[in-house]
Amino acid sequence: MKIYSKMITVFLVLATFACENELEFDPTDNLAGESALSTEENIASVLVGVYEELGQDDSYGGQLQILVDLLGNTDQANWEGTFVEPRQAFAKGFLVDNIWVRDVWGNAYEAINQANLVLERLDLITSSAAEKDRIEGEARFLRALAYFDLVRNFGLPFEFGESNGQPGVPLRLTGIIDYLVPINAARNSVQEVYDLILSDATRAYEILPDANDFYADKYAAQALLARVYFQQGDYAQARDAADDVLTNSGNSLDPDFFSAFNNDTDGIEDIFTFQVTSQTGFNDLVVHYASEADGGRGGDITIQDGYLALFDDPNDDRGDFNYINPANGSRLTLKYTNQFGNIPMFRIAEMHLIRLESNFREGTTTGLDPLIEINALRARSGATELAGPLTADVIFNERQRELAFEGFLIHDYKRTKRTVGDLPYNDDSLVFPIPQTEMDTNPLMTQNPGYGG
Questions:
Q1: DSSP code per residue over 319-345
Q2: Where is the RagB/SusD domain positioned along the sequence (predicted)?
Q3: Residue 14 pLDDT exceeds 90
Q4: How far is CA 61 from the centre of its chain?
Q5: pLDDT class of 15 with cuts at 50, 70, 90
Q6: Do strands 322-324 and 331-333 pair parallel, antiparallel, or not at all (unpaired)?
Q7: Looking at the domain assignment, is residue 246 inside a domain?
């Protein structure tokens, strides 16, 4: 993205463990891959490729966020498109051959493999200690991000204070070039995967620079840590990580809600985004959320009355942040109308929400009193000030108003142990199935309950 089109031959052989390990590669491919991993410049290029992989529509380019939000939706949005894969998510009825799920898994492991190859060759980075730290930190940040969304989508929820021995996903931490060697791997526990995520993200925070252009910097890593701790229910650590980002990153809320979205360049609210340009492809969220006039398919995902009912304040700009598609009369979100808009992964509004809820749950006032902080966030959208007292339900609804359609919904239900329609938060159908391609090619793999195998 921007420079992500700079690809090297090695990517021909850095295929996903699950979906493509049946392919046979010509020996010349392996030679090209070895050559591409032999210099500092090329290791840096491989790292660029990790961003490119994770920014594709199969991952954070849109399809992952869509699956997550449709899985959590009951009455706030509806899938009206023709693709069967997201319809299965909305119906809470995944099949093991769901192509979107397969590609989320495969693309994540492809990016992880590339990050592993970088981390194994850090000794080639000799230009400066700072450059070596930057490359290591970015690779660890991206690997942690990929594993975080793998484990929380393909494993049962993390339970704070428990042993969390339930099956997570395989920790594949050795880079693969030669696909003629066995690459089978069993599932690690949810706890083991979270331990790796926290280790990687903490190391990234320690060694990344304070600013790093549009690549991940130390505050992107700290924002990831805040999100991970928050998902675990470790609110004290989540609060402190979010407070660090809010206090020291230099980022702040955009002056109005509209300004936080559809941007071609990172704004003051963006802690980390995946870059999109006309050279790297379309923003896939636009494809499925926008009207045809805005570059979409006409509104595959439409806003329903349940979402509008969250806004009982006529002054709240977020309640009006939608439009009627003139082609068919459906109501669509305004968050995704720029085909080449960058995709925000971490923005300051989320950090405010993490800090205020964590303070609320811990009975603390780090940074700001929770009521003052929620009102400061609401003021950005013109919403009326809340008088209090705050409750868990009030905060939960505020997260939905602010973060709707950004890939948070099912994980907020799981974290707060709320039912999704008639389903308990830990129901088997709210976990992605292990892709059938992985089951077919990895004899050590076990399927999630409810999907057979």
A1: GG-EEE-TTT--EEESS---TT--EEE
A2: 336-417
A3: no
A4: 9
A5: very low
A6: antiparallel
A7: yes
Can you give the pTM of this predicted structure?
Answer: 0.92
Residue 316 structure tokens: 């709240």
CB 419 within 8 A of CB 432: no
Kindly state whether residue 445 falls inside one of the protein's structural domains.
no
Q: Decide if 79 contacts 71 (C-beta within 8 A).
A: no
Cα separation, 309 vs 166, in Å, equals 37
* Residues 357, 227: Cα–Cα separation, whole Å: 12
Kindly state whether residue 2 falls inside one of the protein's structural domains: no
Domain coverage including residue 381: 9-419
* Paired sense of beta strands 343-347 and 77-79, if any: unpaired
**By the 8 A CB rule, do 359 and 283 touch?**
no
pLDDT digits (tens, 9 = 90+) for 224-270: 999 999 999 999 999 999 999 999 999 999 999 999 999 999 999 99
Separation between Cα atoms, residue 258 and residue 262, nearest integer Å: 9
Contact 336, 285 (CB under 8 A): yes
Q: Is residue 28 pLDDT above 50, yes or no?
A: no
Please provide the distance, in angstroms rounded to a whole number, between the alpha carbons at the two ends of the chain. 39
Is residue 52 in some structural domain? yes
Distance of alpha carbon 138 from its chain centroid, rounded? Answer: 16
Q: Within 10 A of 247 (CB to CB), how many other CB atoms are there?
A: 12
Domain count, the chain: 1
- DSSP label at residue 234: -
CA distance 65 to 73: 12
Matching residue, tokens 């009206």: 80
CATH number of 142's domain: 1.25.40.390
pLDDT of 412 strictly over 90:
yes
pLDDT tens digit sequence for 104-138: 999 999 999 999 999 999 999 999 999 999 999 99
Does residue 293 carry a pLDDT above 90? yes
